[in-house]
Amino acid sequence: MTMSYEQPDIIHSMQQTLAAVPVPKPVHGDAISSKPLVGPEIRLSLSPGMFALLAAPITVALTMVTAWVLLTTVGVNVFFREMVAAGIVNTVGGVFASIPLFILMKKGTAAIAQAGILGIALRIGSILMGTMVAGAQAWQMHTMPLVYWVMAFYFPLLMVETGVIAWLSHKARH
Question: How much is the pTM?
Fold first, then answer.
């Protein structure tokens, strides 16, 4: 039995096959395209960065409306001022958490993961500080309902922002 390297026609065929295979070019530029997902480029557009920034206010607003409808239907005291204050605190915390993601999302998957970790720290810190400010005696709010509302908005926001980070990580070029 002869080896393939001893047969010039097989070697020539393999060289032609390898020459026909395209070599992938290195990717340069942004890891995530800034091209809008919806809408034209000049007018209102929903790019991945804008989607990351809008996730917090939309999530908190939907959670707030759903909770208000459910609690009012059941007849439970809603503590509306505390609910609005907690919504504002969580919205600000969510926007702060998305800023590193908005800035670093074009740098690749590793940068998106690092921005997500930095966003967690910013969200926790800003929500804790905001809760302390909203719970100050000058605002005359009930402390425990405020804390309950902050937690009620925090967890849906955490799930949505984790989903946005996962989506951007999956969308990014490696």
Answer: 0.72
